[in-house]
Structures are given as structure tokens and as C-alpha cells.
Amino acid sequence: MKVYISADMEGISGIVSWEQVTDSHPEYARSVILMVREVNAAIDGALLGGTDEILVNDSHASMRNLPIEELNPRASLLSGNTKPLSMVQGVESGFDLAFFLGYHGAVGSNQAICDHSYSSSSVFSVSLNGQAMSETGINAALCGFYGVPVALVSGDEATVAQARVLLTDVETVAAKRAVGRFAAICRHPLLVREEIRQKARRAVEEAVRFRPYCLTPPIKLEIVFSQSSKADFAELLPGSQRLDGRRLFFQGENMPETFRALQAFLLLTRATN
Ligand SMILES: [Zn+2]
Hints:
This protein has helices spanning 28-49, 135-145, 157-167, 189-205, 228-234, 255-269, and strands spanning 2-7, 53-58, 75-78, 97-103, 123-128, 131-132, 150-156, 171-180, 183-186, 219-225, 241-242, 247-252. By secondary structure, the protein is an alpha/beta fold. The chain folds into two domains: 2-116 and 135-209, Rossmann fold, CATH 3.40.50; 219-269, Dipeptide transport protein (Gyrase A, domain 2, 2-Layer Sandwich), CATH 3.30.1360.130.
């Protein structure tokens, strides 16, 4: 049994602000410890359930957050950026299950800590095949292309509610209840970790019940940028279609191709404000 873990940061218990997930801020050092302990809880649970191989993909910002010396040595760590599949790089090599830890709500979610979708500065909304998507949805569709079901999602209540609507059968752990974009009632990390441990174990023990989340090709991406200047740069990508001032369309043959376009759009938007 092989388990893949994509670990983000905004959905970890105790984290409620951009400052806490920004490496130049003094609070960041505490955040990475909170993060690695939730990841270790999932690793513990997966091992108890019978997993023999675990890959953890650091999936936040620089993707160099998790201190490897604090990580359970039974897991390997994929650290750094840029990666073609970004938050789910490595899943293409073949896994039985995927866990998404510390995830956050889609851009525009109500009462969701640090809600955004891949870029907090550039993306107003993103949809695939006409359906509004969170990072959970986009990454689940990538995993699904490679035949890997998402079995566990943790984050705030908005995040796990979105995951349940999209994935239907998925174990979830709500680490906090947001009362705004930058405030939440947080459960104690010890309780969150224990629930992650239990649900990771159950997910592995009941692995056969989970189904990959697959979108039907071709995969149509529609992205609305925060400003028209972002779309001016993004439309330089061949194959993109400008729909209006802030809106672009791209159609790919499959999920990885469309995701590459999304990543290229976001890199291009960094050239302007
Ligand atoms: Zn993040």
C-alpha cells in the first residue's frame, strides 16, 4: 500500500493569517512545527493501517516548509519548486490513496481561512468543465487522472465541506471553524492530530471504498483574473482564448495538459500587477 500526502499550510490548526504562513515573518517558525506534526499524525495513521510507502509533497508557497529532520523517517519528502504537477507532483508515479492536509477553501468562500485558488493575488475564480473549483478539486482531478483517489482531506470547516460535496466519499478532519478570512475558532492541535491519525488509519484499512475523482476530457479551463492586466500577460500562452477583460479560456486534451496551462498562466501573471 502506497500513500501520497500533499501538505499545505493554511488549513493547519492554529493558523489564521498570511503572516503565519510567510517565511519572512517571525510567527512562521511555529507554523512549520504545527504543520509537520499534523503530517506526522497522518503518516502514523497510514502506517498503523498497513501502508508501507509514503511520499509527502510539500505544497505551500516555496514548497520548502517542512523541516525534514522533524518528519517521521518512514516517509520520503518531496521538497522545493517548480514542479510540473505542483501540489500533487509525484502522484503520477502510482499510489493507492492520496491525502490532502492543511488545505484551504476556494477563492471567494465565505468564512474560510486565507481562501484562495493557487494565487491569492491573481485569481478571482477558476472552473474546470464549467464547475467552480478549489485547489482540492483541481488536485483531486489530477490525482484522478492517474487513478489515485483522495481519501482524506483536512482544513477548516469550509474546506472539508467543499471536499465532501465534490468527492462524496472522503474522510475529513475539520481543524477549525473560520469566523472570517483571518479569524477562526481552532481545535487544539493535539485533538486534531489524533483525529487525523484515526482517519488516516481508517482510510488505509478501507482503501477499496474510495474512487478516483475524474473529469471527462477534453478539460476546459475558464479563469477570471483579479485585473485585466493579468489576463494581458496570461493570454500570451498559445492556445489561450480571451473571453473578456479578465477572463481566459483554455482547452486541453487531458487534466495534466490543462493544468500545465493553468500553471503557465499564473507564472505569466507574475510579470505584472
Ligand atoms: Zn498554501
